[in-house]
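Protein 1 of 2
SEQ + STRUCT:
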Amino acid sequence: MTVVAFLTGACGGSPGKRASEPREAGVSAHSICDGTLDSSAVQALQRLAGTDRFDEATGTNEAGESRAFSLRNAVRHLHDEYGKRSACWVYRTGDNSGYPLMEIRFSASQSYPSNSAKRSEGGEVSYPLGVFAQVGRTGAELFFKCSSEASSATSYIGDVKYVKGEMYSNAAGLRGDSVDEDRMVILNSVSRAVAEQAGCAPEADLPTAVPSA
């Protein structure tokens, strides 16, 4: 599994923001994604966006919860269907294109890509983070250790040993000279916050600074 394979076309039909909707002044990078961006991730987002004001998606998701990202809900719904998982949709304030700068979401995972997937056939770049981390043209993914049990026998995903963090963010719409590293810095920061919320931070062992690729 590579970034290109799982990210193709993922950002189509994003919720909550339409060109006709009036937008407020937005929030800072420190506040976006439930405040999960550390100082390095804040700077990375500002570089990628070329602005310091952002919006998140509005409305409710399939779980009947706000589309604004919530750490609590992200962990609660790790084992649920895609549409029920809490996602952070990040828009540039004032951008009425209807397309997000990035989308970040998390899910429980029973496995992770093998080392043989860490190849650069499509321009992907691997990072020594978690058990698997890779960034490519249309986004990034980060798998980390985080054992968790399904809440019921009918959960969409059963008991697992890992969590998968996914970022959908097309490099073509981003700015700066460190697009790959900046996206991984952001995904790592949010992943660390999710691991802390889930009580598996020691197991995940995600660093505060992203090592060189």
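Protein 2 of 2
SEQ + STRUCT:
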Amino acid sequence: MASLNKREMALRTMYQHHGILHFQNMYSQSTLTKWNRVLDPVFKRLALQARSYVKPDELVELGILEEVMCKRLLNVISVLDPCPIFLHCHCFEIGGNCDASLKDFHELNGWHRDTSDPSVRSVRDCRPCSIYIYLSDVKSSDFGSFEVVPRYDKGPLKSNMNSCNITGDKGTCFLWNRDLYHRPNINRSAMKQRILKLSIQTNGWANSQIQQSEFRHALAILGKNNSALAYLLGSHFGNNLATTTMPYTRTGDLPRIKPIDCSEKTKVPTKAEKMLRRIKYQFDKALGF
């Protein structure tokens, strides 16, 4: 396992301190346009679903996933964890004009943490992360922006905490610690929202996701053409002694990091508001809304 140079150590320290890395120069506009053009007929086929998914095997088959896992992103991932494996790997699309979140995050205005084993850490002491790549423009909260509370991976959510509301044009790419409070804002715009999501943890720990058929099928389609991507897709899951680290040599090419704007403030509902929301949610659920 290669040691980290000063720039790589600075990136790792930034992730450990802030819990979020917002990249500036990951993908070209021509590449993003090509991905969307390839994905358009797939999502058209799934148009009747409120939230539709293109899974890893189809992303490999379409030629998208290998381009997503470019050298800059592989460099970042291997700095944080030399033994990375996917938890999630899909592209999803949400229709416009939503009036509620499509996920069951009603009680804290959508804020939540992802559940994970607290002992799952890389050898560089980094916790599991997720990566978002916007494939549509996200101009404001009403376009379904992602919001996260940096530097707070333990303790209850409180009001008036600084949060980062991530907006931007298609191609906006960022990585965050899954221990942080985060939420997807509701897409109230008329535009569909399209996002690529990757989640990564250390290989060798419990991982029911990587054992699903879409990951096994993705490996079969990929074949032996890309050993680093195959590792991420689970080629050495449960067989760590064969290859202890991802077969990839860092090139030193790291993306520029965009400064984090933490000017938003959290607002936590009162106990009475949470009780009313819980009752309304159960009532709406019983009526099939």
